[in-house]
Amino acid sequence: MRTDRVSDAHAAQLQWSVTSVSPGSVDHPDELDGDVVWTPALVPGGVAASTVASPPDSVDWWFTTTVPASGDSAFVLTFDGIATHATVWVDGIESATTTSMFVPVSVDIPTGHGRVQVTVRVDSMDARLKKRTPRGRWRSSLIDRQGLRHERTSLLGRAPVYGQVPPVVGLWRSVRLRERGVAEDIRVHATLSGDDGTVRVRARLTSPADSVSLRVGEHDFDLPGGEGDLDVTVTVADVAPWWPHTHGRPALYPWELDVDGRVEGRGSLGFRQVELEQSGASVTFSVNGTRVFARGGCWVPLDPVRMWVDSDTLRAELTDVRDAGFNMVRVVGTMVYEQPEFWSLCAELGILVWQDVMFATTDPPADPEFLDAVRRELDAFFAIVGGNPALAVVSGGSETQQQPTMLGVPSDNQRMELLENVIPDHLERRLPGTPYVTSSPSSTSGELHTHVGDGIAHYFGVGGYLRPLSDVRTARVRFAAECLAFAVPPERRAVDAMFGSANVAGHHPDWKAAIPRDRGSSWDFEDVRDHYVRDIFGVDPHLIRRDDSELYLDYGRAAVCEAVQSAYSHWRRANSECAGALVLTLRDLVPGAGWGLRDSTGTPKAPWYSLARLSSPICVFVVDDGLDGLTIQVANDTGESVSGDLRAVLHGTTGPVGEPAEVHIDLGPHTTDSVSLDRVLGSFTDANHAYRFGAQTYSAVVVELVGADGAVLDQATHLIGERHPRQNDVGLSASADNVGPGEWSLTVSSRWAAHYVCVDTDGMEVSDSWFHLAPGAERVLTLTGSKAKVSGHVRALNSIKRAQIS
C-alpha cells in the first residue's frame, strides 16, 4: 500500500466534459466541430453515470479538460484506468494509447504553458467486436459476444447473469496530477519469518541521489543512493504479526521512503504468512501457521454505474463485513480490480482478500502481445497491493478451467499459458510467497475441475442443482470460493421502496429483471428458491404467492436461511474438512432479489444474519447428528483462551423443562470443540426425537457459552422437528428501551416456539434477526438509528399474528 508524494487535489479540481460520436467518425480532437454537445463528466466514473444518451458500447466517447501547467516543475498526469481502447492527446499531440482498462496511462504535462488541453478518445467496443479475430477453442456460456476473449475489459454489463447494469466505459478510475519525483515506480513487499519481518523496496531513481532512507514504524534504514534501479531488503526485528480480525489484531506499520530529505512515497504494510496448501483433494488455509476457516462472500462494486465510491462509503460497507464476523471477501474475475482505498481498509479492518485476475470462462489468447498486456496489468495491480497483508490468494480467474471442462474439452486441449506460466511466474517475481491457484474452481489431484470435493470448488449442489440440504455432508467440500446462490428477496420495507409492494414478486417484468439466471437457461434462481421452499417447508410456493405475496417472500427468505445454516454449521464444525466458504454474493448490483446477502442499498437480507451468527469469532451452534443426538459445536478463533461453561436448557411446548445443565469447557486460542448434548445433560434424552420412542418430548434446546465472569459469550437456539406449521398466535411480544443517544435495547419473547423471528423496524438497524425463539424464551437485541421513537413489529414464520414493538 502506498500514497503518492503529491495528493490528488490537483486532479480533483480538473473539470472533465464528455461527448459521443459515431464510431470512427472523428480521428483527432481538431475534428470535433462546434456542433458537438459537451456535458459534464463524473471522473472517476463510467460514462453511464454522466450520460444516458447512448448505450456505452455503441459509440466513441471523447473526454476533454484543461490542466494547469505553470511553474518549472515537471508534472505527470496519470489515468488509473480508461475503459478500454483509448488514445490521449496533450495540446493536440498524440501522447499515449491503451488497449486495457486495467493498465494505468501516464502523459507528461509540459510546463510554462499556463494551461494545457488534454483530450481522450475511447473507442466503441461494439465496433471493435465487429472485427474478425481468431476463435477460441471453446465458447463461453457466460457471454454472447465471443470476441471479448481478446479484450482486456470487464465482463460486468456484458454478461446478462449480473442483471441490467451498464458496461464499464470511460475514465472509470482516478486521474492523478502529480509532480515527477526522483523515485518512480516505488514498490514494497513485506514477509514474516519467525518474529522478524522483512521489507523489500524497489524503485527507479531518475536522478543521482545522495541520501536514501526507509522508515518502517520506528525503525530507520539507510539505503544506497545513486541513480537507476533501487532494490533493497531490510529486516525489521520483533514485529507484531498481522492477523485477520477473527484471529487477532491486524497490526500495520507505516513506512516512508525519503530521498535527499524529501518523502517520495509513504503507506502502510503488515507482516504475515499466508498458506493455501493442497494435498490430494484436501485444502488447508492458514495464516501465520494457524488454520483459519475463511468465511464471507464474493465482493461486487458498490456503485456498478459510476464504478467508484468515496472512502467513507467503502469503510461503512467493509466495517459491516467485519462486524458480521466475516474474514474474507473474493474479488471475482468477471468484475474489476478494486480501488486502492478498498485494499487499505481491508488491511486496517483485518479482512482477507481472495483476488481473481480478471478472466472468466473464455479461452485466453496465447499470443505475445496479449500476454504482455496481462503482465502490465499484473504490474499495476501488484503495485497497489505490495506490502498489503490483506492479499490472501491470487487466482487465474473465475471458471476459466471449469468452462472447458463442463463443455467436454479434453484436458490436453485445456492447457493455458496464461494460467500455468504467465500469472504464477509474474506473481513469484513481484510478490513471492503469495498463494496461487490456477482458477476458481480448480483441482490439483488430477480430478476434473468440476469435482466439488476436490481442491477449490464452486458449490451449488444446494442451490442451482437442487440437491437436498443433506448433500452438504456428502459433497465433502474442501474450499468453496463460491457457494449458495439464491434469488434472495430484500426485506419487506426494501421491497416496498423498490417496487411498491410484494405483489410484483414472482412474475412482474420489473421484478424478474433483477433475478439472476444463467444465459440460455429455461429457469432462474427464483425457481431454485421456490424448490427449496417446497422441499423444506412442505408448502406450495405458487399457491401461497396467489394468496399472500408477503408470506411467499418470507418463506423464500427462510428457505435461504435454512440452506446457509445447514451448510455453514457443517463446514465450521470441529474436525471439518472445509477450509473456507464464500457465498455468491455479499451484495446485489441492482434493486431486487439478487444473489446478495445485502440488497443494492446495503441493507442486510435474512441470510446475512444466519451467516453472521455462524461466523462469530467465539461461536456456539447446534448440529443434529441423527441417532447420535444433538451436538454442540464450539469455536474460538481468537488468540486468547476461553474458559467457562456450556449451559443447555431443554424446552417443552410451553417453556423450559427442568433446570439448566452445564459442563466446564476450556478452549485454547484458535481451537474448536464438539460436545454432545447428552454429555451436558448427563443422560440419554433423545432430544432430537431420532429414535421416535413415543411422541416428541421437546420443542427446542437453548445453549449458551458462559465465560468465567458469568457473561454470555454466545448462544444458540435449536428448534426440534423438521417442520413448524403456521398457527394463529405463538405469543410474540417486543419492547424497546432507550439506553443512549441513537441506541435502544429490544427484548423479544415468545410463549411458544417461534420459527424465524423477523425484527421489522422503520429506519433502524438491528443486531440480529431471522432467529428462532424457544417456548418461554427471550432475546435481548440492540437497535441503532436516528429515530426519536422505535416503530415496527416482530413476526414469526409460523405465526399469523405479529407483535407491534412497544
Number of strands: 43
Helix percent band: 10-25%
What is the count of DSSP helices, taking H or I runs of 4+ residues? 15
Largest sheet: 8 strands, parallel
Structural class based on helices, strands and sheet pairing: alpha+beta
Radius of gyration: 28 Å
Which strand order do you get reading across the main beta sheet?
Answer: 25-24-23-22-21-28-27-26
Mean pLDDT: 95
Secondary-structure blueprint of this entry?
Blueprint: E1 3-4, H1 9-12, E2 17-21, E3 39-40, E4 60-69, E5 75-79, E6 86-90, E7 93-98, E8 105-109, E9 114-122, H2 125-129, E10 175-179, E11 183-193, E12 196-209, E13 212-216, E14 219-223, E15 226-236, E16 253-259, E17 262-269, E18 274-279, E19 282-287, E20 290-291, E21 294-299, H3 311-323, E22 328-331, H4 340-349, E23 352-356, H5 368-385, E24 391-395, H6 402-406, H7 417-430, E25 436-437, E26 456-459, H8 471-475, E27 479-483, H9 492-499, H10 509-512, H11 525-537, H12 541-547, H13 549-571, E28 580-583, H14 606-613, E29 618-624, E30 630-636, E31 642-651, E32 661-667, E33 671-676, H15 677-681, E34 700-707, E35 712-719, E36 733-740, E37 743-749, E38 754-761, E39 765-766, E40 771-773, E41 778-784, E42 792-796, E43 803-804
Parallel strand pairs: 21-22, 21-28, 22-23, 23-24, 24-25, 26-27, 27-28
Antiparallel strand pairs: 1-17, 2-3, 2-4, 4-9, 5-8, 5-10, 6-7, 6-9, 11-12, 12-15, 13-14, 13-16, 16-17, 18-19, 19-20, 29-30, 30-33, 31-32, 31-34, 34-35, 36-37, 37-41, 38-40, 38-42, 39-41, 42-43
Helix pairs in contact: 3-4, 5-7, 11-13, 12-13, 13-14
